[in-house]
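As noted in the main text, all predictions were made from sequence alone. Below is one such record, for DExH-box ATP-dependent RNA helicase DExH3 isoform X2.
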Amino acid sequence: MACDINGKYEVANYRKPLITTISGLQVQNVAEFLKMIEALDEKKNLTNLGKYLSMLPVDPKLGKMLIMGAVYRCLDPILTVVSGLSVRDPFLLPQDKKDELAEK
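Prediction:
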């Protein structure tokens, strides 16, 4: 990956070494989403929030909820909400399983 003189990486350069390529539109959409949740500033640099979000192994929206829950000292209820949102609904079957059940 190439970085500029200041040691900052360009977001679009991350997609070059991947096995399956990502379109420029997808990168742009992700950058806009990260700006919306204030993880990136207008110059596409990580904010302090973005640095903390990059350390969490969860979806950025859920990570922001966790961080804000810690900041506002209401982490217990936020942990409950985030844990519920971070897993897939156990009552939904994948489409291939539905087809198998329909055949029986």
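Residues 93 and 99 are 10 Å apart (CA to CA). Residues 24-36 form the longest helix (13 residues). These features were considered when defining construct boundaries for the mutagenesis experiments described in Section 2.9.
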